[in-house]
Specification:
The protein is α/β, with parallel strands linked by helices. Helix content is 31%, strand content 18%. The structure holds N~2~-(3-carboxypropanoyl)-L-arginine.
Amino acid sequence: MSAPGALVEINFDGIVGPSHNYAGLSLGNLAATSHAGDVSYPRAAALQGLAKMEANRALGLAQGFFVPLPRPNDALLVQLGADERAERALRAAAWSASAMWTANAATVSPAPDTGDGRCHLTPANLVTMLHRGQEWPDTTRQLALAFADERHFVLHAPVPPSFGDEGAANHMRLTEAHDDPGIEVFVFGRSGGRFPARQHEQASRAVARLHRLDRARTVFLEQNPEAIAAGAFHNDVVGVANGRVLFTHERAFADQQGAYAAIRAVFPALEVVEVADSEVSLAEAIRTYLFNAQLLTLPDGTMALVVPSECAESAAVSAWLDRMVAGNGPIARVIPVDVRQSMANGGGPACLRLRVVADPRTVDPRFLLDDAKAQRIGNVLDEHWPETIAPGEIGDPHLARRVRAARLSLLNALDLETLA
Ligand code: SUG
């Protein structure tokens, strides 16, 4: 256990909700649109997520979680003047378990980076997609509970809806040590391409101002429009940062060399681990989610990359990873994990977690994973999560009751009935 007051990175993973399904709701997310209409496996999905959390905890890392949001969200259909007989896409939006991807829950600026020495969180408005735009009110309630200690945390309202904000998926932090002041890098997209640019520059700038970041230590970069067009609907599909390291595809940013230079200007210690297009094409990187990895600093100070198991099955990607580990670079180890149910909706290991650098003692302990809670969560998943959901079942009142009851069982098991 860390010393009192010590800040550590806590990964808060979203527990996959009992209504997890494949509805193809996210234009520009190629995995999700290509799996539209598949039968989903909510229980397996949630157990895969739990196994990932447990594996990271076994590495000696702090692990938290967020519970699924209430679904189906009848209020959304009411707002649209619709009901369970609504057209398929509207109905599916109300059933979406998309809050599992907590990298989109909020943007988080740890205490050492902010003007008042507290950790600031801004829930993402997720306005670009209907099914995601319904998340923030319930997400905010959960964040308010988990980070209620106002001596250490500040929770903002989401930025106004005209500026799309997708949270930490478009935000990176570079630092010598988690509890040192960091450099915060915000990555935005410009609209005009064939797919939506989901992170608006003005949303990123608003978050940076709200979090009272030092302007001299804040960098704004434009995503490469070609990456968005190739399916990188969030920047964390083509790059991830941890410590001094930026692990990125060479075509992630609109001006790649300019991006490195802008970061280096304020953070000379930057170490770039770049994957060339000739080694792993943008398409292959997006298909395998090589960069949607958790880049973790282990207790011994070395770094590990938790990648989806799809990476090990790609000749180009696995060869690249083998070369990386054999070399002298900062990433010493690669750990594949099976999160296939989430991957089929475009959510890899990094999408499933929100990083919060904080002293675990300042977080509501109900949201921190330990052996007993992992056991209880596993039991509820085994007992109550539907094994499968076929597309035709979305909207079925019997399944709706089952999904609601399953979530309540989880809240009861975690002493979180207040979120019911
Ligand atoms: O917003 N998929 C999510 C995946 C989010 C991944 N997160 C990060 N990259 N951080 C999305 O596109 C698909 C749901 C459906 O189509 O049923 C979905 O919402």
